Amino acid sequence: MAYYSIFPKKDTTIYSHPDRIKMNTGHDEILEIVKERGTSDQRYYPSRILIQFDNDEIKDVISNKIGSSIFNNGITKANIELYSSEHKNLTTTLNVEAFAVSKSWSEGSGRFTNIPLTSDGASWIYKDNDIEKNQWLTGSAITTGLTYGSSSININELPSGSSMELTINGIDYVPVISASLFDNNDSEFFVEISSSTDLFGTNLASIINASSSLTNITASYNTSSATPASTLLLSGSSTGINVTITTSSINGNNQSVFTSSIGNFSVQGATSTTTTPFAAGTSGSLIASGITEGGGEWYIGNGFTATQQFLNGDSLDVNLDVTSIVQKHSASLFGGQTYPTGIFNNGFIIKQPEIIEKNTSSSFGEMQYFSTDTHTIYPPKLTFKWDDSSYSHSGTILTSGDIFLALYNNKEEYQRKSKQRFRLTTRKRYPDRTFTTTSNYIDTQYLPSTSYYSLRDGETDEVIIPFDTSFTKLSADSEGMYFDLYMDGLQPERYYKFQFRTDNNDGIQIFDEDYTFKIVR
């Protein structure tokens, strides 16, 4: 079988609606991507789907059914499939995207209709539940500390008077013989010269720190016996502010009193060491007006995402190619590789693009899908597709005409934990008349290599495995046409039926003769 499906280990929908930000729906029959209108406002709040498949089942498929080399050959595919339930008020163009979840989460046992709501599993706010309260990271920046720029200014000698002043961001600090003779104001402060450079420097630092109109730097003074000696130290103390210091005198810029090794004086205000809260290569949350941050964490970038677009009239079943993500899960499972070549399998998050989610003024409608807890034949699945065909024989190929096809070893029932090889009898329905000692009906004849099989549900006629020209080719050997089917990739206690197709000189011919069987536990 070149199609093999596994079913989710767990799934749930998480809602940003204010009434449901802690609600868990891990056992609800429906998964939905929706934007709900607020109860008390006009905003529309998005939801997202979390879904995860079992590591052991993924390993089994890759190791025992496909083979690692074939799985990574660039042809094999892995697709998440969700089956439509009920959709409402949809726009004509829709987009969904899937990402690899970067943190573990709990399924919970809640349902949408539970009153009071259940909070024992993942929700918009929490990865686990409302008791342990381990929150999803949010998109708000984290300030992990402040880094302050600084500048040192040497005071080489006592100023001779008010002809020398220091200006910091437009505020003048004027040396005077007696500060008590002057009144300070918001733009001008008077610093007593005193009898020594150390006293003047101490006075200047005190006045700077006491200035109510200069709150973005702090000052200190190293005396002549300290290292560095006779130095005014200015440090930034306000985020993102540049502080400019200049000196002036009657004769213009004169730095005989104030000097610095860096020339023009400038202090960079405090720069916050602001970082994203997410680990490298990951993102999450949603920053939009009125919406509580949260809603999952996931990997981003090439190889970590899948997208699908729906146009008016398209089937709304989700079919996302997540091959590259599953390959990264595989690299972690089999080789212990870590990001970016391998990532631990925490499942997938399926959502609308961020630009749609952030637009809280409108809704795209409701997209609803059956969950793993559905009581129907339509649970989500992860389907692996690969080419297991082998076409080698020396017999007659039937390229046209009326062809007879039959399954000659089809049983009524098959155990679910089994692999079956189905063989086909193919021949001309009306053999050419020839003179021979053997029957024409027992000659081994073949369909062309462009021949395929399909599988449908026996009751609903739902296509389980389509005619896929890449992955459902019929094989051929010396005994005739055949194909293999793993029964444990199908739902038990269901009837299924085969159809066959051959593309030959006459065009496309379909064989549908009610080839039916049942999977039993």
Summarize the structure.
The protein has 521 residues and is mainly beta. It contains five helices and 35 strands.
Distinctive features:
521 residues, five-stranded mixed beta sheet, 5 helices, Immunoglobulin-like, 3 domains, seven-stranded antiparallel beta sheet, mainly beta
- Quote the beta fraction: 35-45%
* Number of continuous helical runs: 5
Outline the low-pLDDT stretches.
Answer: 250-254
Q: State mean pLDDT (0 to 100 scale).
A: 88
Gross morphology: elongated
Content-based structural category = mainly beta
The helix content, as a percent range, equals under 10%
Distance between the termini: 19 Å
List the domain count as a whole number: 3
Main sheet attributes: strand count, strand direction, barrel closure: 7 strands, antiparallel
Write down how many β-strands occur, each being a DSSP E stretch of 2 or more residues. 35
Explained architecture:
It is a single chain. The longest helix has 14 residues, at 197-210. Helices cover 9% and strands 37% of the residues. The relative contact order is 0.19. The chain starts with a strand and ends with a strand. The protein has 5 helices and 35 strands. A hairpin with a 2-residue loop joins strand 34 and strand 35 (507-520). It is mostly beta strands. The chain folds into 3 domains: 3-140 and 283-385, no CATH class; 146-273, no CATH class; 396-520, Immunoglobulin-like, CATH 2.60.40. The protein has helices at residues 55-66, 68-71, 197-210, 323-335, 354-358; strands at 3-6, 10-15, 30-37, 44-52, 77-82, 94-100, 142-147, 150-155, 165-168, 171-176, 188-192, 217-222, 231-236, 242-248, 258-259, 265-268, 271-275, 282-284, 297-299, 305-310, 318-321, 348-351, 366-370, 381-385, 396-397, 403-407, 413-415, 419-428, 445-446, 451-457, 463-465, 475-477, 480-486, 494-504, 507-520. Strands 2, 3, 4, 6, 20, 22 and 23 form a 7-stranded antiparallel sheet that branches. The radius of gyration is 37 Å and the shape is elongated.
